[in-house]
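DM from R.C. (forwarded with permission)

"hey, sorry to bug you on a friday — could you get me a structure for this? deadline for the figure draft is monday and I only need the backbone to look sensible"
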Amino acid sequence: MNKIRKGDEVVVLTGKDRGRRGTVLRRVDDERLVVEGVNRVKKHVRPNPMKGEVGGVVEKEMPIHVSNVALFNAATQKADRVGVKVLEDGRKARFFKSNGELVDA
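My reply, with the result:
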């Protein structure tokens, strides 16, 4: 079970965007994810008339390693670690390590 999923609000812990908050747009693989407004780079794009794309310099978000982000806890207004526990009915649920509150509730 992934501790950080698409749609979660995360805080960047290290790097040039440290302290910035954003929403996870997508998971690239098990270790990398793309966060909205974080790790933006300028990319030179070639024009592609078949797709209707114009060329030029485009700013886009690049993947960031999952170890460099932490889930944002709205109750404490800070970044927080996440654990997984099995509920009484057998489902797995994520919870914040600081206060034990369920993430998916």
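R.C.: lifesaver. Residues 34 and 63 are 4 Å apart (CA to CA).
me: no worries. The chain has a mean pLDDT of 93.
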